Structures are given as structure tokens and as C-alpha cells.
Amino acid sequence: MLESESTQPAAEAGGQGKFALVSIRLPVALTFAALVGGLIAGIVGAASGAPALVTEIAGLVGGLWLRALQMTIIPLVAALLVLGLVQMILAARVGTAARRMLAVMIAVQLAGGAFTALFMPALLKAFPVPAGASAFLADSPQDVGEVPGVLDFMASLVSPNVIAAAAETAMLPLTLFFVMFAVAITRLPEDQGERLLGFFHALGNVMLMIIGWVLAIAPVGVFALAYGVGVQSGGGAFAALGHYVLTVTAMGTFILVLAYVIAIALGRTGPRFANAVLPAQAVALSTQSSLASLPAMLDSASRLGLRPSTSEFVLPLAVVIFRATSAAMNLAVVYYIAALAGIEISPAIAVAGILIAGIISLSAVSLPGSISFVVSIGPIALAMGVPVEPLALLVAVEMLPDLMRTLGNVTMNVAVTSAVDRAADGAHEPT
User: What is the reported pTM?
Assistant: First the structure.
């Protein structure tokens, strides 16, 4: 089971408890098997001289599935981004503890994004992408990746026509527009805000139903796409996937280490944090779900001597509106695809990527990891001029990096709780 949450705890905290998003799942084992089977079939087909028609049919099937997946990105991100931002703003109004929590969360996302932007290119330079991996870009447009100049980049931040921006998948102006839209909703009279939020909840549910139907046939689409990759790259595709998993996971390790630093430096837990958080980490690795780990996280907070009033407020809210590893690991995926495509990321684009990754992470809360993978990383890639087509295959191996995602998220949630408790007025010394 991939990382999967419920929207209910945060919704109740923000006063919108009557709304809930539909639950959908990707057939993970079948999709992973389809990826491996498709690559093997492509390698065997190329070696045995299979007719070119087979490759063409596989390309057609895979391309149709890929486009069906892509068509949901913009409306789903729009709905979930507005809902996530509104939840965060409403949570900030609850009290000082919520504001402290959000401040630490934002700092963590920015730090994770900055770390990836600095170290992922260096890591890929030291350990280059294996030969043959470029086959993952077989269906990508050839004109993607043109990096705009600084002035052109600044001008692209605002679009005079948001509909045209959506049609062109211009994620930078769209993200800025929906950030302002969400802030404006919180300033409306309550009845008007309720109606707009109801619309976006309904839009999100509709898009999730559609993407659920598309992901239900993911094994077919992934097999077809993988067949074409196997034909072109041979055994190099397996090496590329292993290289991808290790490098992306390395960026998530930074967040895991950062959690210990926050707990010890800001939470003043000392070395006890490592032992106290172990049960929650064990549940996180076995379930790959932050929500399933919530009882264990509450137990870890108790072991640290944190006040129940803090942990019982911060942890459920953090589970729903905070994915600590999102910015670091999602941006790492984009940098990996950029390396596949030979795209150089300029400093201006890198800064935009860090900010977009942090903001977009709010649109992926309460979704299974396979769906949040596409919803979160697609917009970042589009904003940075990087092809999104490889995501359709990489989602099949997300079950492996997702182990680090869940482990980092759970550990950071407990660390942030300790920091908030320590900063609270009248906090007692941990025992």
C-alpha cells in the first residue's frame, strides 16, 4: 500500500469537515510486474526481430494511456491546490501552535528543495545516468526543455489569460493565480466561501474518479510503454531504474537527517528522539502510510514527554497538510528527467522549481503516493520546461522511493511536534 491519507483531520481543523475526497488506489504489484514484463518483452522482441507493427501498436496503446493520465493534471491540481491552501490558511488562524507548525513546515520544504537543487545535479554528475536510459524519453516532444532568459522568465509569471495558460500547461502563472484565488476565498463571506470550496471539492472528486479509471488500467498502459523502452534500450533500462531509485531516495535521506536535527536542536529532545521515534518508523515502513502511523507517532510523542495538547493537535494536522519529503524528492525526480533529456536548469528556473515544489506539495496531501506522484511532479516539470512523459513509467517503481517518503514524513512529523511543544509558552522540560 502506497502512502495514503484521509482528508478528515485537517478538514475538521479548518471547519470544512463535511467535505471529503474520494479514495482510489493504483494496482501497485500488477503495475510493477507490468513494467518488468514490458521491458523483458521489449528486449526479447528486439533480439528476436519482432515485427515493427508490434512496437507501433504498443506505442499507440501506451501513448493513449499517457495522454489520458496527462489530461487530468491541470484541473486536479487546480482543485487540490486551492483546497490545500485554504486548509493551511484556516489552520494558521486556529492559534499560535498552528502558526509555529506551519512556519517549521514551510522552512523544511524550502530547505529540502534547495538541497536537491544544489546536490542532485552534483550527484548525477558524479554518478551519471546509465546508457540507454534516454529511451524513457521516446514519446516526449522534441522541443521541450528550452530554458527562457531571466527577463522572459519574469514576464511568464503572470498570464493575461488564465484559460490560455491552462491550455498551454503554463504552470508558473497558473500556480500564482490559484494561490491568490485561495487567499481570496478565505476573505469572502462564509456562505460564498463555502460554495466555492464545495465546487472545488466536487471538481477534485470528479478528477480523482477519472484518474482512478485511468490508473485502473495502468498495468496495460505501463506494459505498452515499457515494451517500447525495452526495444530501444535493452537491459540498460533496468540499470536506469535502479539508478533512479537510489538517487531520488538519497535526496529524501536529507529530510530524514534534518528531522533528527530539528528534534534535537529545536525540540531539545536529545539522543532520546532516535529511540522514541523507532516504533513510528517501524509502522511507517510496514504500512507506507502516515495516517496508519498516527497512533504510533502519538505514542512516540508521549515517550518524549511532549504535552498531549500539542501532539494531539499538531500530529493529525501534520499528517494531512504536510509532506516533509515532497519538495526534495519531487524536485529530484524532475532533475533526473532533466538529466535524461540533457536539459540544463538555470538558477532562475531552479528557484522557481523550489517554490513551485513547496506550493504544489499542498495539492498532493491526502492522496495515495501513486497519484500524488503524478499530480505533484507533473506541474513542477511543466514549470521547469522538463518532459512529463517519463512519469508514466517511473510511477510504476514509486513503491520503492515511497518507503523513504513515508519514513521521512513520519519522522519529521514527530520532530516538528517536539519543536512546536518546546516553543510553546510554559512548555515543560521533557522527562
Answer: 0.81
